[in-house]
């Protein structure tokens, strides 16, 4: 048996086991962690097929962003009773959060007021996507179109997701 066949069988068994864990676990956090593991195994399948971009997107978007967001919402809506009593065990976190927030505001202000230099590679905004793909490649043309041609809808979508999470936190808050 070749290495590809053995690694496929190992990945198949591991992904089926973690997928069963999504269904079997009664704790929502454990189920979400098992789903993250299943999504990571799926990314490894993509790597076996030679689809590096899809594997990276799988890890970044699904296993990284969406599932961590889901875990954040689940843990915020269902805190343990012991955690509510011992709220401020690490008071230094507020200082670090304020420092990181100020750093973020400073960096964004610097970029806003100095202006970001955009190269002349932005040909996708004009709508000639086939020429841009032929010149730059699929991934670069997609990135330029997303972050330059469709930046406003992209940011509005992210704002709507944040508002939905805050609404879920407010509606799910316990008295």
Task: Summarize this structure as a short list of keywords or feature phrases.
175 residues, mainly alpha, Four Helix Bundle (Hemerythrin (Met), subunit A), 2 domains, 8 helices, 79% helix, flat
Describe the 3D structure.
- The protein is mainly α.
- It folds into 2 domains: 1-80, Four Helix Bundle (Hemerythrin (Met), subunit A); 106-175, no CATH class.
- Helix content is 79%, strand content 0%.
- 6% of the residues are buried.
Which helices and strands, and how do they pair?
Layout: H1 3-24, H2 28-48, H3 52-77, H4 81-85, H5 92-114, H6 129-136, H7 138-149, H8 151-171
What would a concise description of this structure say?
The chain is mainly α and 175 residues long. Helix content is 79%, strand content 0%.
């Amino acid at each position: 048996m070749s290495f590809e066949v053995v690694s496929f069988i190992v990945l198949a068994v591991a992904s089926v086991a973690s997928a069963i864990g999504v269904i079997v676990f009664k704790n929502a956090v454990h189920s979400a962690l098992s789903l993250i593991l299943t999504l990571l195994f799926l990314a490894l399948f993509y790597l076996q097929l030679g689809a590096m971009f899809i594997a990276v997107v799988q890890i970044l978007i699904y296993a990284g962003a969406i599932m961590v967001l889901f875990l954040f919402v689940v843990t915020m809506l269902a805190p343990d009773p012991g955690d509510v009593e011992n709220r401020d065990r690490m008071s230094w976190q507020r200082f670090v959060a304020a420092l990181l927030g100020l750093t973020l505001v400073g960096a964004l202000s610097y970029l806003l007021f100095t202006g970001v230099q955009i190269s002349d590679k932005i040909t996708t905004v004009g709508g000639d996507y086939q020429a841009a793909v032929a010149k730059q490649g699929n991934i670069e043309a997609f990135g330029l179109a997303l972050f330059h041609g469709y930046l406003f809808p992209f940011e509005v979508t992210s704002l709507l997701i944040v508002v939905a999470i805050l609404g879920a936190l407010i509606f799910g808050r316990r008295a």
